[in-house]
Write a structure and sequence with these properties.
The complex is a heterodimer of chains A (470) and B (584). With 470 residues, chain A is of the alpha/beta class. Helix content of chain A is 34%, strand content 24%. The chains are: A alpha/beta (470), B alpha+beta (584).
Chain lengths: 470, 584
């Protein structure tokens, strides 16, 4: 029986302080029992001699200096796990909220995890076919990658995430199962419900674990949500050999919770008031993706974040971009044009793509095509800005072709239906077809051999049919 | 002396109360798990220690033990080809020791393989005088590199015992040395050196040799000298890591130290996989034979991230002292600066710019000044070249790390987001980058790369400058209204950008281009420019020249001409002459 402490010395926002406690362990878990019989959990976040600062996950409402009894567990925060967790809905700190009872643990996992030894990682190479042209062709998602979606309020990031989950196919089918761990941090109730019902409709719900911390839930719990979700994902991937796709939304809310918590601890703020350790903290989340030598499973992360004021240099987006292996950026203008998915091609990038595509993975011409599309579309932007000054009529013939190319590229290639599932072959052929709108001399990123093989010849029939190119 | 115990814990920072047992920068062992830490401030009331490992689970009243020395690295054969964390713990051995894919706290494995038998040649005999830094033995460390054991700086004397050449283990005594005071020292195959102290040298040499990277924009426009320092700043996705990898693969240094400081785990795995598959073009051996990796990924403890930079550069100095040319890639120094900021914040120090501590510039300069072309204590020449990636917040180059770095490096390769968006790699912006080494290196280029090299370089740079001026006009009124000679400049500049500056890292020939081919490519481009200008002067339109297809042909010469058959360049002159003769 461990010692219990009556009362508290100080309460400050989500932090309570307790004095005269010998033998404190850093980051150990604490249970606080209130007079009214309810129980809360907390974690030691700072130790100063015999004084402990404790963050209370469920918030400090109703806590008083005299009405609590505190017990120190001596253990770090752990989450109970078993394979039965699939299909369950839990709150942000890993407690079931679907009324189906407790989880019978096969194992307890420390939610902080440990850094993965780079020597034991396997470099991710197998791509995930999402059926979305702009993702598959230009920012290919690789199994074991962390590829965030940078969005803004009011854009269709949720729809895109759902479409990826529904359509995600792994190139070579293996015995390993496929499942989704969904972590919601500070999202609205109806957004969470949208995800749940979408998963249900597509019949994947039994393979989904949901961690829900809604926008009115305590912020301290929000700090735990991604860690619980990732511990679950690691467990499923590395002990049950499953391919796990982790969706975390919204990372901006997470960072804001961290900021709130940091300021209540009285820490020195860094950029925009976020704590100086924001980079390390985000890294401890994002780096928990990958493949381990000798294990069949994998953890792939798609964090979603909304850029405040669509500002990609905002600290959260900026630091995320430095840690993750690329990013898919959504664009307000495309969204306003009614195009879905509104992916801004130029700032989007998949760092692992170069090794996961081409001969043996997708098709040998994939890299060439992607490079040329990027280069040509970048040129479209130059031409457009010129056209906005001198008018489209004044443009040279080649430049006018670029304008036309840009339009078709956005409307036919980037844009597609919510349920439209294009194979990689369809996507690549479509890309070449659109490129053939440009004069062949302009395609300077591809060597002649590939052009001869893949570039469709200018079709006379197409011109006659009055159906321009497509 | 009573036992010192932990008083407070705040993230990676702990304090010990009421003790005077510690000295500044001393290495200590913290807690029952014996986590490695370093003393960063001490006074009568409190000693503050930063811990290089995760402090979760650490308890107050656990012991803190002194080690009596500063944080040091072990230097000896077995370093090359290895992968270490920020405080020189071998990650491969950690993985094998506990059969886990994760790094446990307090992992305790020997730094270097103590059991391996090295084939040692002893180079001194009894009675010889051995001065500090002199070589007393050597052994082949990898097929490529001979490891030379040197007496530690500061230690000299008479040899009283020298073992026979033969097979020895790391800790076997092979030489005994009597110093002036009559103390006897045993020398083994290894030695220790504190990471924050630069290893002494005899003197610093002026810089006169370039580090050839095979990357056209670097070798031609913004060269880096052996013993110099360069910075590669760029926002995320601009290609910093790619640039670093390319240089690590192809530069003509003898040894590469690659420090992954607060970067992605998968990237380190990629380097590991790629380098063990690649063959060094000069020696035919595996690239890993000349490479050391220091991996401190972003989720590893932040204090070790701070140490990783020093660990890397200390290893580099050790090999420099043997007479090698070493290149250090630090990816990324911004993460290191952020580690400083994070720890400074935990210490509640007064922040300067953007929350960074006021001592950021002095720390940066200490690091970059460890680069240099030196005469070592044993009279050989060696160099340490530092290439630091910088990740500015929001890709804004006015932030403190970039600005301060600029003061201490002389090659500045600014990566440009818009080039990266158009997938123009390496995305080094030719207008904002610079190299101050050009004048220092001019004699070398004139002698080794051909007298025309620098003249061609100047002309290429001028055309690019002119283009940027013309583009301002084009952006406003379109290219059609320009006179023909200016249109030609734009066409030629495009040719230079796409055909010369842009380089394909995945193309077998284009990934590394020798200086001679670089020169010949420039000459062809400039010849075309010259001839086309003559035609324009005779009032032939640029469009006519474009119709010949010459521009396209020249753009693709980087792919069409293999590196080992440079004779093909002669055909280009003929073709240019013939095609242009057709117009006039």
């Amino acid at each position: 029986m461990s010692i219990q402490y009556i009362g508290l010395s100080e309460i400050n926002g989500p932090i309570v302080v307790l004095e005269n406690v010998p033998d404190l362990a850093f980051e150990e878990m604490v249970q606080l029992k209130l007079d009214n019989g309810t129980c809360r959990t907390g974690r030691v976040v700072q130790v100063n001699g015999t004084t402990a600062a404790i963050q209370v996950f469920e918030g400090t409402k109703d806590l008083g200096l005299n009405n609590t009894v505190t017990r120190f567990t001596g253990q770090p925060m752990r989450i109970p796990l078993s394979k039965e967790i699939l299909g369950r809905v839990l709150n942000g700190s890993g407690k079931p909220v679907d009324g189906l009872g407790e989880i019978y643990p096969e194992k307890f996992a420390d939610i902080n995890g440990s850094p993965l030894n780079p020597v034991r990682r396997v470099y991710p190479r197998n791509y995930i076919n999402t059926g979305i042209s702009s993702v598959d062709c230009l920012t290919t998602l690789i199994r074991g990658q962390k590829l965030p979606i940078f969005s803004g309020s009011g854009m269709q990031h949720n729809k895109l995430a759902v479409q990826i989950v529904k359509q995600a196919k792994i190139s070579e089918e293996e015995d390993a199962g496929f499942c989704v761990v969904f972590g919601a941090m500070g999202v609205k109730n109806d957004v969470a419900e949208y995800f749940r019902s979408s998963f249900e409709q597509s019949g994947v719900l039994k393979n989904v674990v949901m961690f829900l911390n809604l926008s009115n839930d305590p912020i301290i719990e929000r700090i735990l949500t991604p860690k619980c979700a990732l511990s679950t994902a690691e467990y499923l991937a590395f002990e049950h050999d499953m391919h796990v796709l982790v969706i975390l939304t919204d990372m901006t809310s997470y960072a804001e919770a961290l900021r709130e918590f940091s300021s209540s601890k009285g820490e020195i703020p860094g950029r925009k008031g976020y704590p100086g350790y924001l980079y390390s903290d985000l890294a401890s989340i994002y780096e928990r993706a990958g493949i381990i030598e000798g294990h069949k499973g994998s953890v792939t992360q798609i964090p979603i974040l909304t850029m405040p004021n669509d500002d990609i240099t905002h600290p959260v987006a900026d630091l995320t971009g430095y840690i993750t292996e690329g990013q898919i950026v959504l664009d307000r203008q495309l969204d306003q044009k009614g195009l879905y998915p509104p992916i801004a091609i130029l700032p989007s990038l998949s760092r692992l793509m170069k090794d996961g595509i081409g001969d043996g993975y997708t098709r040998e011409d994939h890299q060439d095509l992607a490079n040329q599309l990027f280069a040509s579309y970048a040129k479209v932007q130059d031409v457009r800005s010129l056209a906005s000054v001198i008018g489209e009529e004044e443009l040279s013939a080649v430049d006018r072709k670029y304008i036309e190319f840009g339009r078709y590229f956005e409307e036919r290639f980037i844009s597609q239906g919510v349920t439209e599932d294009r194979t990689i072959g369809e996507t690549l052929d479509l890309g070449w077809k659109i490129l053939s709108m440009l004069p062949r001399e302009e395609l300077d990123r591809v060597d002649n051999e590939a052009l001869d093989k893949y570039l469709p010849k200018p079709e006379k029939e197409a011109a006659e049919n009055d159906e321009p190119i497509l | 002396m009573g036992e010192n115990t932990i008083y407070s814990i705040n993230g990676p920072v702990i304090t010990v109360r009421d003790t005077t047992d510690f000295f500044m920068l001393e290495m200590v062992h913290v807690g029952n798990a014996k986590l490695v830490g370093e003393v960063i401030s001490t006074n009568r009331a409190f000693t503050t220690i930063q811990v290089y490992e995760n402090t979760a689970g650490l308890k107050t009243c656990e012991p803190v033990k002194t080690s009596g020395g500063p944080l040091s690295v072990l230097l000896g054969p077995g370093i090359l080809g290895n992968i270490f964390d920020g405080i020189e713990r071998p990650l491969k051995d950690i993985a094998e020791a506990d059969h886990s894919a994760f790094i446990p706290p307090g992992a305790d494995v020997p730094v270097l393989d103590c059991e391996k038998q090295w084939d040692v040649t002893v180079k001194v005999k009894r009675g010889d005088e051995l001065s500090a830094g002199q070589i007393y033995a050597s052994c082949p460390e990898t097929p490529l590199i001979e490891h030379r054991m040197m007496s530690p700086p500061g230690l000299s004397g008479k040899v009283t015992f020298a073992a026979q050449s033969g097979k020895y283990k790391l800790n076997d005594c092979i030489v005994k040395l009597m110093d002036e005071d009559g103390h006897e020292h045993e020398l083994t195959l290894c030695q220790k050196w504190p990471i924050k102290v630069p290893r002494p040298v005899r003197k610093r040499m002026p810089i006169d040799t370039p580090l050839i990277t095979g990357q056209r924009i670097i070798d031609t426009l913004f060269p880096l000298a052996k013993g110099g320092a360069a910075a590669v700043p760029g926002g995320f996705g601009a290609g910093k890591t790619m640039t670093q990898h390319q240089i690590a693969k192809w530069c003509d240094a003898d040894i590469i130290i690659y420090i992954g400081c607060g970067e992605r785990g998968n990237e380190m795995t990629q380097v590991l996989e790629e380098f063990s598959g690649l063959i060094d073009p000069k020696s035919g051996n595996k690239l890993t034979d000349r490479t050391v990796l220091i991996a401190n990924t972003s989720n590893m403890p932040v204090a070790a991230r701070e140490a990783s930079i020093y660990t890397g550069v200390t290893l580099a100095e050790y090999y420099r002292d043997m007479g090698y040319h070493v290149a250090v890639m630090a990816d990324s120094t911004s993460r290191w600066a952020e580690a400083l900021r994070e720890i400074s914040g935990r210490l509640e120090e007064m922040p300067a710019e953007e929350g960074f501590p006021a001592y950021l510039p002095s720390r940066l300069s200490e690091f970059y000044e460890r680069a240099g072309y030196m005469v070592t204590l044993n009279g050989q020449e060696g160099s340490v070249t530092v290439i630091g990636a910088v990740s500015p917040q929001g890709a804004d180059f006015s932030e403190p790390v970039t600005q301060n770095t600029k003061r201490f490096v002389r090659s500045f390769w600014a990566l440009d987001k818009s080039l990266a968006y158009a997938r123009h790699y390496p995305s080094v912006n030719w207008l904002t980058s610079y190299s101050e080494y050009v004048d220092d290196l001019a004699p070398w280029y004139n002698k080794n790369a051909g007298a025309e090299f620098l003249e061609c370089r100047r002309q290429i740079a001028t055309i690019l400058q002119q283009e940027s001026r013309l583009m301002e006009i084009v952006k406003l009124i379109g290219a059609d209204v320009l006179p023909d000679d200016q249109k030609l400049t734009i066409e030629i500049a495009k040719l230079i950008r796409v055909g010369y500056l842009q380089q394909n890292a995945f193309h077998a020939d284009d990934t590394y281009v020798p200086l001679l081919k670089q020169l010949k490519m420039m000459q062809v481009i400039l010849y075309l420019n010259h001839k086309a200008k003559e035609l324009i002067a005779r009032e032939k339109p640029v469009s006519g020249i474009a119709k010949t297809g010459l521009f396209d042909k020249v753009v693709k010469m980087k792919y069409d001409i293999p590196n080992d058959n440079l004779k093909l360049f002669d055909d280009y002159y003929k073709e240019i002459d013939e095609a242009l003769a057709g117009i006039s």
